Amino acid sequence: MRAIWKGAIAFGLVNVPVKVYTATEDHDISLHQVHNADGGRIRYQRRCEVCSEIVDYEDIDKAYEDDGRTVVLSREELKSIPAESSHEIDVVQFVPAGQLDPMMFEKSYYLEPDSKSPKAYVLLRRALEDTDRVAIVQFALRDKTRLGALRIRGDVLVLQALLWADEVREASFPSLDATIRISAQEREMSAALVDSMAADFEPDQFTDDYQLQLRQLIEAKLEKGESLDTEETFGVAAAETGSGEVIDLMEALKRSLEKKRGGGAVSADEPGAPAAKPTAKSAAKAAPKTASRAPAKAAPRTAAKAAGTKAAASKPAARSARKEA
């Protein structure tokens, strides 16, 4: 890894020199745009609207427009902003980890000690361990002043960039204001379904199905060219998009439980009957399948598979069921 930034954590009067590394990476297959008529590469140019010339990146400044007036800000002027030139990660307070809303989490960075003696680094790490707290910090990186959380991952300090409070939008949906009656039977059934799908989270069990199938499509296209048959490549016809609407919630819950319990019927008189605990192996298999599909669509698709009649299953759901089978 290559360090993207160097600075120091200001922990009271203690300075902890560190190097900053990006902790995550993108493995998505990179695709570029082409003209569908002749396959020519589509490229974007930085063209000036005044002189029509293509402008090199080093000759570009930034500007702000306000009520018809424009101010141009040069790179030197932007670099003169005091916060931009700061290389200090300033610890402002220590808070319980549970108080951090995951909605605020942005990008993660590893911090490596950048001194001959990493004693101050280890001291800060131990302080976070002993107090079971997270350090809230402020720092500047890439033309932006940021809020962050300093926490521990193994033996490494991790800087988690956070969104500012006003960057998290409020959720205001009139549909949630309606009074919805959920019966005790529905709650018991849904709790039983959750219990039947319970497992410990193991990230390495999950795969990016889209990227794997995109790679499969690319390799098939390289081999067969324009004669490619996508249905033959993937073994099934492309699924149509369903509405995801649950017509009979109780029926969907019952059919879902039947599937998880190995096909055993669920009595309407015993909706909250304890679900059989899955083995570690079956739980591991169930978890990736559950996580790779949106919950709102999973229930109707499962219901369609087990219903057994055309009246109970929509066309999109039936196709999805055949795919799962």
TrEMBL record:
Residues 271-319 have a biased composition (Low complexity). Keywords: DNA damage, DNA recombination, DNA repair, DNA-binding. Residues 52-179 form the Ku domain. Residues 261-325 are annotated as: Disordered. InterPro entries: DNA_bd_Ku70/Ku80, Prok_Ku, SPOC-like_C_dom_sf. Belongs to the prokaryotic Ku family. With LigD forms a non-homologous end joining (NHEJ) DNA repair enzyme, which repairs dsDNA breaks with reduced fidelity. Binds linear dsDNA with 5'- and 3'- overhangs but not closed circular dsDNA nor ssDNA. Recruits and stimulates the ligase activity of LigD. HAMAP family: Prokaryotic_Ku. Homodimer. Interacts with LigD. PANTHER family: NON-HOMOLOGOUS END JOINING PROTEIN KU. This is Non-homologous end joining protein Ku. It comes from Arthrobacter ginsengisoli.
